[in-house]
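User: Fold both of these, please.

Assistant: Here is the first one.
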Amino acid sequence: MIRSFLTVSTGTLASRLAGFVRDSLIAAMLGTGPVADAFLAAFQLINVARRLLSEGALNAALVPAWLRVRRSEGPNAAAAFAGRVLGTLSVILILASILIGLLMPQVITVLAPGFAGRDTLDLAVADARLMLPYLAFAGPVTVLMALLNAEGRVALTAFSPVLFNIALIAAVAVLLVLRTDATSAAWLLAATVGLAGGLQLMVLLAQRSARLATPLRISLGSQMRTFLARAIPGMLASSSPQWLMVAGAIIASSTPSAVSWLYFANRLIELPLGIVGVAMGTVLVPELTRAVGEADKRAIAHAESRALELAAGLALPAMIGLIALSEPIVRLLFEHGAFGESDSAATAHALAWLSLGLPAHVLIKALAPAFYARHDTLTPLIATAIGVTAAIVLAIPLGHFFGAPGIAASIAGGAWSSALYLIRQGGASFGFSIDDAAFRRLPRIAIAASIMGVPLWLTMGLAPAGSHGLFQLAVLCAQISGAILIYGLLLRLLGVAAWRDAVNAIRRPASLK
């Protein structure tokens, strides 16, 4: 599992780094005015669909169902089942894209009520309609990626999202060179988003992955209805972080530039969350499904324990690092062109508060597969609904008194509401199987992350605002590299992990025989 986890995490890291380049260029081109708010609100809508489908979320529903059919009826039946899912889901998403396009003014008004009566609403509607083809392409891309993950072929699916960001980077670079006005640039970039999904689909089809889903059929029979009834709640629940951002945007849309500040702050949260979250969906779900299906308690405990260790080992130091280094990171990545110093300060404040919810987001990603493997998609969906409700309720007063940072704090509060609900329900329903090694290591991971944060706090002012960009980059790289080194040494000294163990895990997957 460790080898697959690292493969998926590496691909996700590459995608997120490319995403930073993309968003830095978008910030330089659009800034944080009405045009940027409109584009990013529309892009957030597509991002929800993207996370909901193509970035690991559907694995939570499709992989267990596909493995169950293959185990009970054989590979041909599994391929036929996948063919029905592929055909049916593709048609549903095409029809949904058309319907959403027709109702887009109403959709944007619900998601960003603060845009009503302003030109920002019309801009957001136009941008969102141009992006909608991505939703139709995401259907076949989703199914093919999930099938490859189920077979353990995670490399292609891990790096496929990089193509999406490469296409947008190329488009933004051309628009910057041509000095296109902001409104036209936003429209052209929105159209590129719509076509980028087609690029992902062509790459997957070139690998002949479609043979895993044959023959292609459209079906609404009992088997398909059962699958969709289980899949839809799981897909909605798997995108909990994105729904929380939507909840925040609903309140933030009434404040100029707040949607943009929250978007760019959240992009930094998505780096560690993506590495852990996508890997959980593509690696942990199949492992837990097999273990639960075979009633192998030792395998279940091993999978859940290693998942929590990996999640905590990445989430805690990432949270501390993002809080301590929020301002220099935002300045270095986004303070260019139309994105000014005041935008950096507002985005950094939002980032610091959003970071408090990062461990909760990662905890949700680690806990939810235990429910999915038992074919329970309703409990994670209820947890997501509780989190979104809590975020909106908190955002109304906090956003009024504290602006974007208050809304960011409400999103973090919503994430913890969801995580605590999952912990309580899991303990009551089946109990989480955590082995003794995890009980020893998890507190030590927290101690190591806390100590790692001390030198970061002490060196916060080494690269003040206005200093040369290369100097800021050098200082930031030194701070991050030093923190990683200290954290690694602390993990070794505390007996949590050794480099030799990590290398052996990569070379030889753990055996649970």
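And the second sequence with its predicted structure:
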Amino acid sequence: MADSPTLFLTNYFQSRVGKIAIVTMDNGEDYKKPNTFAEKALVSLHEAMNKIEADKELKGMMLCGKHYIFAAGADLMQVPFINTFEQGRQIGAAGHAAMKRIMDLKIPTLAAINGAALGGGLEIALYCNYRTVSKAVPAIGFPECFLGLIPGWGGSSLTPRLIGPEKALELIVYNALNQNRLIDGTKAFQMGLADRLFDAVEFFDESLALLERIIEGSETIERKPPDVSKLSSHVQQAHSFVDMKVHGAAPAPYRAIELVKGACDLGRAIGECFEEEDKALGDLIKSRQCKAGVYSFDLIQRRAKKPVGRPEDVKPRPIKKIGIVGAGLMASQLALLFLRRYGVPVVMKDIKQEFLDKGLGYVKGELQALASKQRLTQAKADHLFHILIGTLDWQDFTDCDFVIEAVFEEMTVKQDVFAQAEEVISPECILATNTSSLSITEMSSKLKHPERVVGFHFFNPVAILPLLEIIKGEKTDDVTLATAFAIAKKIKKTAILVKDSPAFLVNRILTKLLSDCFEIVDEGADFMLVDDAALDLGLPMAPFDLLALVGPAVAFHVLETCHRAWPERFPINEHLRQLVNAKVGSIYQGFGPGKTLNPKVAEIWAGRPQKEFLKEEILDKLLTSLTVEIDLCLREKVVADPKDVDTAMILGAGWPFFNGGITLYLDVVGYTPKVLQKVFFSI
């Protein structure tokens, strides 16, 4: 059943200064289905403007959304059906034609941004003369470049003319490519997107009263003209940022920069700027990157919210107290996450007071930082730290409902931790492990109740990466699994069910990629050339930079796990072993364009053969190997569907949205037909 179209519903208010039109965008659904703009919405906007233009008694117009939602922009689900430049250009022109009618009204217009305003939802507000925003609005922004598009209904042109190129580029380019970062109502006001910031309780009334004062002339909105004096510098910096993020693999952010630059020619007619947006949409909306971005968006926003494998009709257990074994960096991040999302007592245990003090200090410091940034009140931060309990005694775990271990990545250590925990916890308490590669079944094999053990593989940094691999052991029961999925939802992680298989899914794929990179280097390729070849995929980080982030010792441990299972496909790299034994943490000295090869690395790899490689040759080898490995993962039922692979790689490994998930990418660029004589989506 198709979603209800968004309509522009017009009502009238007889104010003390005369008749005011109040136009409400509403699709008839609750806040869980935001207003979006498809063809019927634009028709409805034209109809509303016809009424307003014909009513000579009107003194002003206020535009608002339904409860909690202003508007979320264009209906992206139409994008896959657009295949020509002219189709894309016409979509841009249709949006401009409808929204510009607001700009052309002869009466004062005010957009009251009462809820989330994204993409076209923010753009339509820019056509009004004035804007107010509620302090309660959680999400405002332009996600288009994240999806392979540009703000094409006025956003790329009107934004820089309102707030200047620096802030416009922040909204349109920087935020979009920083994992689609959004701003709240307060930040929107501070940036100059809105003229007034009001409390949520009185927002509608305050906005209407402001419009009344504007109509009668008792209040004037003053704005500084946009500062375009440093335009060239801002444009150059934005280009450098985009190069670092996508390495030329996605055209949309580059096009957005040029549109912002063009709009900053303040003598240019706005209509000309809109025409350039139309052309950009015509080029981009039919591109592979845009269609892939929309696929990714639909994957994350819809499919991932109903994970495959979650037991139906099984009631999860309530969680009133949480235990964490370990006080290292990962354990401390988990403590902070559970405190913030659950707000229940969390007990953190380690074997030495000095380790415990360090972990507690980390959590306290992070809570204080959140309070200083006003993301938490000081009272809330103090309360959360107060309910964090540090202990050396297992007895403090007796009333826990959920216990997760984050100790040293060694089977015997983890088995011992679980055995000690089982002696004190209740029969209903769930035991979870944050192992990155070890068998859940083996880990629980010596317990009296292995059915309550489940894998909970987080990705580092925990606060940023949204993926959670939930691993079902051979004896994990449905109540445990249902509770695991409920916990994932509560802590705002996207969960996928993964088979108990060596290194699970994401780490297996990344280990294969890194193993192949080392093999190519061993054959004579330059480290930086291998990294550059991989970056042509638009990856957020080159493989050998990722190695430094993960740590060579951790990477080698996962490689050993995979090698034991599949020795031919995951050979032990002796140079990597030497790197770990020498305690060398990074392939390079420095980071970014000026980095150089670490002399210790050059010494370890001295004597290898010298061979010239082309980037295309390296990339072909990497992608061929990944195609085979992902196919094996699917054949082995590590996950249920290629879309689970895509979800996992996007949310756990930073695979670019504009490449649409790794299986779709391998299909589209021809590797699955070439290597496997099929496509993943036929599975």
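Residues 506-637 form a domain with the N-(1-d-carboxylethyl)-l-norvaline Dehydrogenase; domain 2 fold (CATH 1.10.1040.50).
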